[in-house]
Amino acid sequence: MKRKGWFQVLRPLSPRARLTLGTLSFVLPIVIWCIVSYVPAVWHPQVRITDAGSTDYLQVDMRMDKAAFADAVKEAEDAQKDPPKGVPSNPIYLPAPHEVAEALYTAFITPPPTPDSPWLHQSLWHSIQVILWGFVISSIIGVPLGIICGTYAAFARLSEPFIEFFRYLPAPAFGALAVAILGIYDGPKITIIVIGTLFQQVLIIANTTRKLDVALVEAALTLGTKKLKLLTRVVIPGILPDLYRDQRILLGWAWTYLIVAELIGTSTGITWFITQQARYQHFANVYAAITMIGIIGLGTDIALALIGKRLFPWDRTLVKEA
Amino acid sequence: MTCKTAIGAILGLSIFAAAAAQPASAAGLTIGYSDWPGWVAWQVAIDKGWLKEAGLDVTFEWFDYSASMDALTAGKIDADLMTNGDTLVTGAGGGKAIMIMLTDYSSGNDMIVAKPGIKSLKELKGKKIGIEVGLVEHLLLLDGLKKAGMAEKDVTLVNAKTNETPQVLASGQVDGIGAWQPVSGQAMKGVPGSRPVYTSAEAPGLIYDVLAVRPASLSSHKAEWMKVIQIWDRVVHYINDPKTQPDALKIMSARVGLTPETYKPLLKGTHLIDIAEAKKTFKKAEGLKSLYGSSSIADEFNVANAVYKEHQDINSYIDPSYTEGQK
Question: Could you tell me if B219 lies within 8 Å of chain A, comparing CB atoms?
Fold first, then answer.
């Protein structure tokens, strides 16, 4: 394939080019990360102490700025004492890829520290359940409401101005209120996800519904379709593929509320793991947990895209995308 | 037909969701605890099954500290482990709870850390200090300044979140910070050569940690709360006994995801209080030796810093009878 072929305006890529570029989009950031981590000349602004020498305030594995380290060495040498030794290193908040990979693996095989605390996979499953319930409850209300708003202008006018207002209220601000009403367990967490998702959902789905080809509705009316049947036989089937795609995007939206939701009430799920590890600066574990969320999110989305392709074989945009 | 099934499915789902949203928290007592050595100590009693052994139906729920206070204010837990000052703060905000027992006082874990080259609090005169205004570290700093013959106006306070103070100190834009462990330890690790110039070890009793119980639960479960205090005495002795301390350290460090060795210094900065000592601290007196004295200092501080407006009636927050009634 000619190089030029990649830069044609609004033309689909060949399957091979798609695969190459898709792989590269993951490989490139990882390569950059590797270079920054393993090639000391690139960044490594700090020094990790390997031998404290004669100094009394340094400890092995402590990290300090290069300049401060140079001062410490000079001070010791001037005093004819044993200078501290160290190797260049990155700040503690940027662990190397292999450290994160190792953390990812060990986090799963490490048994829970106390008998009453969950394994990591149980914590993850808990988080996934919170997300799913939040999304299901939001959809039960949001999808029908969105479709009705999109179909009938009167409904839209009655509800959308308020929803527009409400969607700007930050969901986490309802945390203490949700705890007061729903208790300390999963209730308030699910509520935060619903609040974060629902209002966007209504507006997005209403907009999708409005984009339905008017010709379809007119043809149905000409053929004498009644009001309710117009909704169930024309509008809903007409928007279904787009609705499905909206839901995929909104599910991702729900995930972004997970961390704030789980900070409310008792500490549970993957958030408990992340905040606890961050408090003691075990950043390799933090990155590992973030990676897990990414893998679960992307995995779900790819699965849903493939299912969508099966469900709506006539939908061009889906075929192009997956 | 399909319509009916769909409705049925939705109904089923919502009922299931509602059930999932409210896991069983039956008739038993619920206590909130969070990441502080004096509270993590309860893990020993939990893991050893001492609560069940005493016939108690008590559940400990793990929170972020501020979330635990929210839950107490909302009346969703029976009791919370807090500092005496914060008990007044939540009480002033409508979540009144009564301090019935002491777990510990901070003895070194809270500290003012100065950058390399500064060796005493006096040398911080005219300098900038990163601190979370209105919180315990602020109170600790004021206490230290007073002892050093200075006042708040002799230093410049830079309001910073306690969790972020390590970065604030490392940035070099302040000359000192105030934080508690493990944050203060991390700050010193991040800026080698920095050292504590004033710690809670020099002001024992400035910050007491307590078990505060909601009045309703207290009156209806008096016998149970008495037993809880008894178990605490057992915990303190188990942790302080050199023979059993390694096991206790193992349990406590596991709870927060550390190794026993790294947890030991954190425990050292916490002075656990057993029943015999608590009985003395529950005596009314001025000064930091008494919970009353310490709490009224905290009250003064809270009003002066507009944490709340009206002075709180300290006596109504403390019920010494539970600790005094122990054999």
Answer: no
